[in-house]
Amino acid sequence: MKKAVRVSLKAIGILILLLILLALVGWWYVNSTFLNFEKDYAEKTVFNELTIDGHTFLDRNGNEKLDIYEDNRKSTDERVADALSQMTLEEKIHLLKGSGINSALGRGDTAVPGAVGTIVPTPRLGLPTIYLSDGPAGLRIAPKREGEERTYYCTAFPIGTLLSSTWNTDLVNQVGTAMGTEAKEYGIDVILGPGANIHRHPLCGRNFEYYSEDPVLTGFIGAAMINGIESQGIGTAVKHFVANNQETDRNFNNAIVSDRAMREIYLKGFEIIVNKSQPWTIMSSYNKINGTYVPESKDLLTDILRDNWKFEGLVMTDWFGGDDAAAMIAAGNDLLEPGTKKQWKALEEAAEEGTLSETAINTATRRILKLVMQSKKMQNYKYVNNPDLDAHAKITRQSAAEGMVLLKNEQVLPIANAENIALLGVTSYDFIAGGTGSGDVNEAYTISLEQGLENAGYTINKKAKDLFESHKATNEEAFVKPEGLDAMTNPYFPPRMAYSKEDLADIVKSADVGIITIGRNSGEGGDRVEKDDFLLSDTEQKMISDVCSAFREAGKKVVVVMNVGGVIETASWKAQPNAILLAWQGGQEGGNSVADILSGKVNPSGKLPMTFPVNLNDHASNANFPLDGEPIDFIKMLTASKEEKPEDEQIKNKDYTNYEEGIYVGYRHFDKAELKVSYPFGYGLSYTNFNYSDLNVQIENDTISISVNITNSGDLAGKEVVQVYTSKPNATIDRPVKELRTFTKTKNLNAGESINLNFQIPVLELSYWSETTSKWELEKGIYRIQVGTSSRAIKLSEDVEIII
Ligand code: BGC
Q1: Beta strands per DSSP E along 4-80
Q2: Which residue of 435, 723, 729, 752 sits 20 to 30 Å from the alpha carbon of 188, by its own alpha carbon?
Q3: The Fibronectin type III-like domain covers which part of the protein (predicted)?
Q4: Ligand 1 site, CB within 6 A
Q5: Are the beta carbons of 743 and 721 closer than 8 angstroms?
Q6: HSE on the CB side for 648, CA within 13 Å?
């Protein structure tokens, strides 16, 4: 007996020793491969200065200040050429990858904690570290720093989908300018955003970061955002180029897409962005397209992006994206982020063996150097960590209000003669500012709907609030928000509330109006699911019907506020409430912005950037989309082989996704298939009405010029979004019924005020991508120019003839 105990004690001892040894080896590996791999470089290279954040550049002898790159009398290209000519091959290769996961985790000795990536310094030449931080809903840096009392909060602006719902490029430009200023004042050089992927399917977990199901709206809004941010001397990384339309297995998924769908839908938004804003950088996506990882695709990154579209900036990978480091550089993916030791070694070996040419290395280095030379760091800009957060709070409040979409209003809004408001549903009190993952922002506060209404002078019904408080107290743990990586795999979704008949009777007695909030959250690393997410849960359905009938019986009204990041089902319940406001996720001032609309301080003018279908499977893409919401597996993401699996082992919609619907995404499909929708693309109500008149269409010099008159025919001042679609009657090829070509938002028009609007559409924009000639082709003949308030409400149209 004793002996057995001794033996097993010994075994346990050996096991513990082995485990310690394993942990040590593991730590050594992680440390030398991912964390401190930059140290090797420091030891190998004779530096005069190692950390170069304060910009005290010394020359190669460590004596004088080297300032040739700051000399503005020389052009950027000259300074780049000069720096390039002085770099050793080793230094060039070193520049092609970031400094590793330490910065990716926002840790380590970076000057700006929370930055997720760097362009490494070349101290010998006085080239500083460049910091990259997430977007796109605001700057994402760590709000607190070790040993410091003060905080480094950033403004949480509205999610991308809300911004595109404004259809207001000037406003989005202002948001971008504010975001760029924040980055500049916190020492960040490049914001990793905006997101320009197409909403191919409503369940993509990152749709909230993206703008629309339509490439023209995506392109116009994206370019406005980029021009705003870059006006501050801060770069952007437009992401995720391209066809990254699902989160499930995003690091391995092969999107099988036709050339026509690529050109007309998935690439088109990026193409408009490059044309209108020439961004400093583009981030390649994780996925493969037709068998090739995007960062390794010369076709996409060099032939299309550079040769075809004349993109002048650099391309960086998404974090740990791609497989073969040398192939990425050769294809035109200039910068590998956040960079690994393995990639560094692979590049050195490929250069030595001659499989990666010096020309390719020089091209990538030149593009990186250009960004460095353009940066505020290079100009020695002295940031003082003090952006004007109060001014930015005002901008976010205004922009959020302008992107909220009024879906239904039976003479209940703006709320008049009501003092006591009953707030129902968890998210009325626990309002959601934005999505999760890298698109989340560390803001100082979020104004809930409750606070917003209080700020606007309303009284919040006590009984309804008490019920929420006791619901929260009984489910305490479920109300703790997961953070960081945990939030990506465990989305925050506290249990919903049900109301008893008696409680509702009490509430209805003491309240003038009821507001139900339906909340949803999603984010990077996982796609949404149909049950209890796209569809309302049984509890939510019951809440809506119980609340609506209790208020209706008492002759009182109910408003539903949708605090969501993506499309949910509305057709089955929309008849019940008297009004529905799609508030999206409006950033840190969201509750105030909703109150601005509900109270009538702001007249709603948002329009849907996507279709709200009746059923999920009405979407043509539904047959080829992962529907199980499998969350990301980080270990697999970092370690699994990226080699293609044998065909019979490949799982549909995970290993590969067939974009069988081709160009029929969003309204292009619903219109073609003549399907009933719950709310069409471009739809949104106002508290006033607009009259459309005097459409005039001319063709001059290969441009279609359109003018139209808009009159505010109602009683309240308001803005209107005017949308111009074109269609091709008697088309000789398969085409969508209509396509958005341009749009504008009017200024605030007073009651009775008119405005004349002018639009220009280059004739070539009517072309389609021919897979026979591999070119854009223009059909001649009659085109219908349609001006409307949504894709299904065309007010005026006129035909023009294109003679080629
Ligand atoms: C995301 C990118 C993000 C990057 C850095 C990736 O996981 O896909 O959008 O910019 O991480 O945080």
Answers
A1: none
A2: 435
A3: 720-791
A4: 116, 134, 192, 239, 318-319, 438, 524
A5: yes
A6: 0
